[in-house]
Write a structure and sequence with these properties.
The structure holds 2 protein chains of 2 kinds. The longest helix of chain A has 10 residues. By secondary structure, chain A is α+β, with helices and mostly antiparallel strands. Chain A has one domain: RPB5-like RNA polymerase subunit (Eukaryotic RPB6 RNA polymerase subunit). Chain A has a 4-stranded mixed β-sheet, with no helix packed on it. Chain A contains 1 helix and 4 strands, in the order E-H-E-E-E. Chain B contains 17 helices and 12 strands. The model of chain B has no long low-confidence stretch (mean pLDDT about 85). By secondary structure, chain B is α+β, with helices and mostly antiparallel strands. Helices cover about 45% and strands about 15% of the residues of chain B. In chain B, strand 7 and strand 8 form a beta hairpin. In chain B, the strands form 4 sheets. A 4-stranded antiparallel β-sheet of chain B has the order 10-11-3-12. The chains are: A alpha+beta, B alpha+beta. The interface between A and B is medium-sized, with 30 and 30 residues.
């Protein structure tokens, strides 16, 4: 069976390193609580093996700008 | 040349850079290219939304006004058969409310390379369709004296699904406990093991026998092979992505459902967001009205912010608002105010609506920046 992350609807998800995470939060002057969330059990990040508090960088295919970057913080449940 | 493109990668979206690349004249100097880029960056920065702009309000108006012109007709016939799909305003409401069960679930099943050229697409479609005992039987009858149910299998119908009376009998005896199945020609005789035979029990057995799943994918009520572009796909009424994706001939990288919650469960929140956008745009296009996609994207982002798909209802995104007054201003105000006062909730008045209610400056547009002043030190 094909991996879920290979589906056309699923954009590329990557883990953000601790250093990049800090830089991101500093750039927008926000805390982890304030960024959009993704569940730890989400099928699209199952292969990354993430923990609560990690940040996922998502490369969306966008109709208006070609590719756009989005961030989601991993939460439990 | 290349280094100039590299330089602007961070400053411009990929699509604009591609557009520039495509439309460049063959012999352009570096200086000219740089000039072009500078102008594009200027225009791009001008086109950006200002800080504090009420994008949500603009989106609401931009979707709401053309929405009033939408026809109220519910059904749109896909293809020639009797398959129908909810379109128009009811479908938009359904998506935005984030309903768990939608009125016409549908799957677009894409097929892998050798299968998608037609040929045996009808047989493949039949493999997906759910078959219950009722579909292959021509008659159910109850013999009251012996307390048995007799099922007459229509061999021709069964053959369509690659089944025989004996095979059906096997499946029935497997899926039920406490019954004995005997085959008599093309008929199946089902008897309860229970010693106390009652009419009620036998009657219930008959009704349950009718709905035993014997082949295909559960929940798929109709199938329709159609040609899309230069390949054949199968449209289905009813949805069950998990089972369909395990089928060997199905292209699991393109097959999609129109049920947002199911997509979230199977592919994750980002895929669900994309389906919300696609489904809304499909309805809007079919109605012949034009709404800028960015408004739709904002709504979809809002619905998916929490990692779950939440509808624009008082149970969904509105319930997540931190301010009591903001929640109360949407629906059922008294309930929210009573609940908040019981637990001693605090309202930080950070957002727009609660400040409107209190006749204060709203933190948006020119109301957003504050003024701080450094007082001269007294000597």
């Amino acid at each position: 069976m094909t991996e879920k992350s290979e589906h056309v609807l699923v954009p590329k998800h990557t883990k953000l390193s601790e250093k990049d995470k800090k830089a991101l939060l500093e750039k927008y002057t926000i805390t982890l609580k304030e960024i959009p969330k993704i569940l730890k059990s989400d099928p699209a990040i199952a292969h990354l093996g993430l923990q609560e508090g990690d940040v996922v960088k998502i490369f969306r295919k966008s109709h208006t700008s070609g590719e756009s970057v989005y961030y989601r913080g991993v939460i439990n449940a | 040349m290349e280094e100039i493109f590299k330089e602007y990668e961070d400053k411009l979206p990929a699509k604009l850079i591609d557009d520039i690349k495509k439309n460049l004249p063959a012999n352009i100097t570096k200086a000219k290219l740089k000039e072009i880029f500078e102008k594009v960056v200027d225009e791009y920065e001008k086109a950006k939304i200002d800080v504090g702009e009420c994008v949500g309000l603009v989106a609401a108006e931009s979707i709401g006004e053309p929405g009033t012109q939408m026809t109220l007709n519910t059904f749109h016939f896909a293809g020639v058969s009797e398959m129908n799909v909810t379109m128009g305003l009811p479908r938009i409401i359904e998506i935005l409310d984030g309903r768990k069960s939608i009125s016409t679930p549908m799957v677009e099943v894409y097929l892998k390379a050798p299968y998608n050229q037609g040929g045996n697409v009808k047989e493949l479609a039949m493999q997906i369709k759910e078959v219950v005992v009722e579909d292959v039987a021509s008659e159910f009858s109850i013999n009251l004296v012996d307390a048995i149910v007799e099922i007459r299998i229509n061999e021709n119908k069964a053959k369509n699904y690659g089944l025989t009376a004996a095979a059906v009998g096997k499946i029935i005896s497997k899926s039920f406990k406490g019954i004995a199945v005997k085959q008599n020609g093309s008929s199946l005789i089902v008897k309860l093991d229970d010693k106390e035979e009652s009419l009620n029990k036998t009657y219930k057995l008959k009704e349950r026998l009718k709905l035993i799943h014997i082949a295909g994918v559960k929940g798929i009520k109709q199938v329709l092979p159609v040609k899309k572009g230069n390949e054949y796909i199968i449209l289905t009424a009813g949805t069950n992505m998990k089972s369909i994706l395990t089928l060997e001939f199905v292209d699991a990288t393109r097959t999609r459902s129109n049920d947002v919650h199911e997509i979230r469960d199977v592919f994750g929140i980002e895929a669900a967001r994309q389906v919300i956008i696609d489904e809304l745009m499909k309805v809007i296009k079919s109605q012949g009205i034009s709404i800028d996609m960015r408004h739709i994207m904002l709504v979809a982002d809002t619905m998916c912010v929490s990692g779950y798909v939440k509808g624009i209802t008082r149970y969904g995104v509105v319930n997540d608002k931190s301010s009591v007054l903001a929640r109360a201003s949407f629906e059922t105000p008294i309930k929210h105010i009573i609940k908040a006062s019981l637990v001693g909730e605090e309202d930080k008045l950070n957002s727009v609506i609660e400040n409107v209610m209190l006749n204060q400056v709203v933190p948006s547009g020119t109301g957003l920046p504050g003024l701080t002043m450094k007082l001269p030190k007294k000597t």
